[in-house]
Structures are given as C-alpha cells and as structure tokens.
Design brief:
By secondary structure, this protein is an all-alpha fold. The chain folds into 2 domains: 63 residues, no CATH class; 135 residues, no CATH class. The model has no long low-confidence stretch (mean pLDDT 85).
Amino acid sequence: MRNAKADFIQTLEKALPKTVDKREIIREYELHIEEMLLDHPHLSVEDVIRKLGNPIEIAKQYQEIAPMSFVSRHFVVCNFMFFIVGAIFTICYHLYKDSVFSDAWGLLAQIPSTIIIVYTVFWMLLGFEIGKEYGVQGKELFSKTVFISIVPNLLLMLMTVLQLIPTNWFEPILTPTFTTICVIITILFYPISKLFYYIGVHRSI
C-alpha cells in the first residue's frame, strides 16, 4: 500500500520544475494524502493517489500557473476598487451635504460590525477560490495574491494610526473601538485566508 504513495511522491519530485521549492511541495502533498486518508477512512492509499491524478501532469501545472491568474487578479482588482470607491464616496459625502451620500454615510455608521463581517468574508473567499481552483500547487499564487491585495489595507491602517489622515473625515464611522478592531482584523486577514485556502484545496479533490 505504501508503495503507491512512495511511487507518486518520487515521480512528482522528479517531474517538478527546478524553479519551485520541491521540498515544500512534496511536504504539502504528503500531508494532503494523510489528511485524505483520515477524512475518508474507507479509501485506500491507491484510491487517494488515483484521486490526486497523474504526478507528471500535476508537475506540469506548476509550470503553467501564471504569476497572476484570472482568479487572483479578480480579487486584487476588487480590493483596490473597494478603496477607490470608498475614497470617492468619502469625498462626495463631504462635498454634498444633506444628500443621498449623507444618508448612506449615516447608514454605514450604524452597521460597522456588518462592514467588518462582509469584508472578512471577502478574504475568506479569496483563499477558498484559489485553493479550490489550483489545489496544493496554488500555494505560492495564494501568497502573492494576498500580499498584493493587502497593500492598500496596510497603507490606510498605517496612515490612520499615525494620524496622517484626519480621522474626522470618517466620523462617526471611525471610532477608537472600530479602528482597533480593523487593525486586529487586518493582521488576521492572512491566516484567515490561508485557512480557507486549505479548505478550498480539500474541496478540490
């Protein structure tokens, strides 16, 4: 039974391109095989290996994955658009008093927790969709996507904490409590996304 796993790992290691971290990829697949066996005790090692597919074809996918795929570009663009739209909305709120922007701003001020939850779900989906689309071989792509996407978050957080942006621009939404929660959530975005990346990987099999 163990020969099937050993043959799969050996073939995969030989077929992987030199440009990737072979040790890390092999470790990921060994762990993934063990998880599959634990989650599906009725399956044999051969069954799990069969579900994973041809190791040579898997290795080819590491050569074919572009630096930024359609899925990852979609999430990067969406996150940047959140900030662009938010900036335009903030400017309109201050320029056009007693307008629909004022009403919308007042509504947002009443649901700060909902804003945080919805935005956290966005980061969950980012990890899940990349994991589901690319499986174990999408780990590097996932990391690149998260680090690029989170740039505006970190810049805004830094400028807000250092008071480079007048906090009164965002009143009454930006309270001290809301700011603290946002800082904590921003720090947790990567581990949250990574958790859902692995859930997506699991669903891809």
